Amino acid sequence: MREAMATLARLQARSKAVGQQYYFRNSVVDVFRKKENDAAVKIQNWFRGCRVRAYIRHLHRAAIIVQKWWRSYLSRQHYQLVVKEDKP
């Protein structure tokens, strides 16, 4: 009986130590996982920002082309009107 009690006491002490080790290792892994996740989020934000800025540049260039064509059209209309008025 004494042997069984001694074994039980050793197992309980070991169990407590194993539980503490498990908790400590898990907390270390959680810190690493959070650090890695934060780094991934930064990379994703940078990449998405690059894509959005490129799309805005594209829209800006497209707007410039539309404005250029519109102003050219208005200038031709104005020129035709001026030429028409100058004819006797």
TrEMBL record:
Record-linked InterPro entries: IQ_motif_EF-hand-BS, P-loop_NTPase
SMART domains: IQ
Any Pfam family hit: IQ
Classification via SUPFAM superfamilies: P-loop containing nucleoside triphosphate hydrolases (SSF52540)
Official protein name in the record: Spermatosis associated 17
